[in-house]
């Protein structure tokens, strides 16, 4: 059963909504436009990732995970353009009721509070609509902007994971954050 998510308006009239197959072209354009901006924070990408076909394949994979109640792929839409993405992934039910949060923002929208507003909206949905108990996120040690977004959304730093993810072509340490959603 797919996780339901109603479109939500963000500051500036942007919309946080579920990713769609029809977004493939706009996603490819956004990733091409932000290639240099995101490269230090992302895994090494194949050239196919930056194409419409590559984004269509990734979107279909994420939507299949959504159907299995294992992920919730969202985009920040500005008309026909994509200004960012947020994903709940590795969603685990049972006694854990937890998910990971990942996100990115178009370079032209950085520094306006948009990421914080979107993350707070997603936190509310995770708690109120999906009954999750805990969200986790990780950032590179030097990604102070993302750490600020997490802190503003009520996440707390819980430690450092050595060699946690392969980012920009090498295994790198990450700061781990969590937010407990219920007392």
List keywords for this structure.
eight-stranded mixed sheet, alpha+beta, 8 strands, 183 residues, 5 helices
What distance lies between the first and last C-alpha atoms, to the nearest angstrom?
A: 27 Å
Low-confidence stretches: none
Q: What does the radius of gyration come to?
A: 16 Å
CATH topology: Aminopeptidase
SSE succession: EEHHHEEEHEHEE
Query: Residue-averaged pLDDT, rounded?
Result: 95
Shape field: globular
- The number of helices is 5
Strand-residue fraction?
A: 25-35%
Biggest beta sheet attributes: 8 strands, mixed
Structural class: alpha+beta
Multimeric state:
single chain
CATH architecture group name: 3-Layer(aba) Sandwich
Number of domains: 1
Describe this entry's structure for a reader:
β3 and β4 (81-92) form a beta hairpin. The chain has one domain (8-180): Gcn5-related N-acetyltransferase (GNAT) (Aminopeptidase). The longest helix is centred in the N-terminal third of the chain and has 16 residues, at 52-67. It has an eight-stranded mixed beta sheet, sandwiched between helices. α1 packs across α3. It is built from five helices and eight strands, in the order ββαααβββαβαββ. The chain is of the alpha+beta class.
Describe how the helices and strands are arranged.
Elements: E1 8-9, E2 15-18, H1 24-33, H2 35-38, H3 52-67, E3 72-78, E4 81-92, E5 98-105, H4 114-128, E6 134-140, H5 144-152, E7 156-167, E8 170-180
Parallel strand pairs: 5-6
Antiparallel strand pairs: 1-2, 2-3, 3-4, 4-5, 6-8, 7-8
């Amino acid at each position: 059963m797919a996780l339901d998510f109603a479109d939500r308006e963000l500051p500036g009239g942007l919309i946080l909504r579920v990713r769609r197959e029809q977004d493939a072209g706009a996603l490819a354009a956004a990733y091409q436009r932000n290639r240099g901006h995101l490269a230090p924070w992302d895994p090494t990408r194949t050239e196919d990732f930056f194409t419409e076909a590559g984004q269509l394949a990734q979107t279909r994979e994420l939507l299949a995970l959504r159907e299995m109640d294992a992920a919730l792929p969202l985009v920040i839409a500005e008309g026909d353009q994509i200004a960012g993405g947020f994903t709940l992934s590795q969603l685990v039910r049972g006694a854990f009721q937890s998910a990971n949060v990942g996100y990115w923002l178009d370079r032209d929208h950085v520094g306006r509070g948009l990421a914080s507003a979107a993350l707070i909206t997603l936190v509310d949905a995770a708690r109120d609509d999906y009954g999750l108990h805990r969200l986790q996120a990780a950032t590179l040690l030097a990604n102070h902007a993302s750490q600020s977004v997490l802190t503003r959304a009520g996440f707390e730093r819980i430690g450092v994971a050595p060699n946690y993810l392969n980012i920009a072509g090498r295994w790198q340490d990450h700061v781990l954050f969590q937010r407990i959603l219920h007392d």
